[in-house]
């Protein structure tokens, strides 16, 4: 790969101009014998034998290695210089995601440790830097066979099969540096209040505040036109303000535009942190004025009923595996989803790259954000999962596209939830934990079946007979008493209480367009048969739209051996996109 991969800003909702992308060629080594610690590879004084293209995991083709075998411990090494314009600043080193445990050294000194394969972390490396030339070393440990690790669709056996795919080990999202002042914004939390025409701004400030005259200025614009300004003193590490938006030239509260899949209007917001007259920090962000709510058994977007037409998206790519090959590839997935008539995506068992959420914000696509689950319950998994889930919700809170939080899927990591009080408590605790972090979005505690406390009543149903599906969803009573896949839809003590009903997995029609063998839930023989089957599994939900308030078709693309996609693995439509769109529109 000649040019640096993934050059776009990796954190599009919190952008500073002073940043450096560290993607590209790094030195690399497998450490199956765990020699690295004994030989002190962390010192960085010896080169590693292989070369890898970061941010692609070694299992992927784009890494330049493409080794599918199990290697649970890997090392990375590269040299770097700090730009002259970063002088007299604090230098923050960021990792978008490293699967699963990461240890980071700069010039032989420990800079950071992090556990969690899908969430970002950072370290202030200022005190570790040399004036001339620096060495960065990363050790990643990912226990491939440990079924208590949050792994999502990464298979614990040597070769992928069924609905499980190739593993991802080590760095798989962008690595980058940025320069900040000793006092700077750490993050912001933006909460729109559609009804009041306001946005709540919670700013988190890092550094020594005492003895300074700190002020934070927020400028909000829409289409280049100012709609609000706010400036206030900063006396605490967390400061909260409520800002009222103006409509056009009027001084009265008002909105220029709402965010929805049809009208993805975004407001730009710029933050400037001052100490007296000195500008310490400047950050650019954006937000959408939209409201997700559940009222009287209905799912609402912006105070209007919203029928969800979603596609299940695994987020895998043929050359990059979990890592999208380019920003354009991410954008194209969102565009293809919309071209087929879907208004949402359920990102399945993967906390997606922030750039995906950025394009959903920009182009208009609702997202159900779902955690990567473990396969088995354990004390360690409770701790690991809770920590990573907190980081996930905090990372993506500001994205207007994120509509629903889904910590668990089909009792993965809690397979005895109906008879084990601890596993039931685990699912319940995740529901309330999520609510404590974000009270503005619905939470589905355990998507698909064996539900406990939940805001939406979600069902996984791969039935393919149109008459059977039509009858099953003729009434709410019939829908919630069915046993699709032979599974109880709720745990005893948590009966249906009038929540909106959505069928959040359905379809799964295998259609092989090449000679390659594949796996799927049900099979189509040719284009006409495929179209007929699509209509048969989607039409009943449009007919039952007073009972069922949405569906999620499995799935966007084929992935490795699984051929349930509307598109092939390389994103080629199996039938015309216009036909799929027409079916999704209820025609």
Automatic annotation (TrEMBL):
Spans traversing the lipid bilayer: none
One Pfam short name: Glyco_hydro_2_N
Keyword Magnesium: no
Keyword terms, alphabetized: Glycosidase, Hydrolase
Span of domain Glycoside hydrolase family 2 immunoglobulin-like beta-sandwich: 183-290
Domain Glycoside hydrolase family 2 catalytic residues, every copy: 326-450
GO molecular function: hydrolase activity, hydrolyzing O-glycosyl compounds
Family: Belongs to the glycosyl hydrolase 2 family.
Name this protein carries in UniProt: Glycoside hydrolase family 2
Organism: Cohnella fermenti
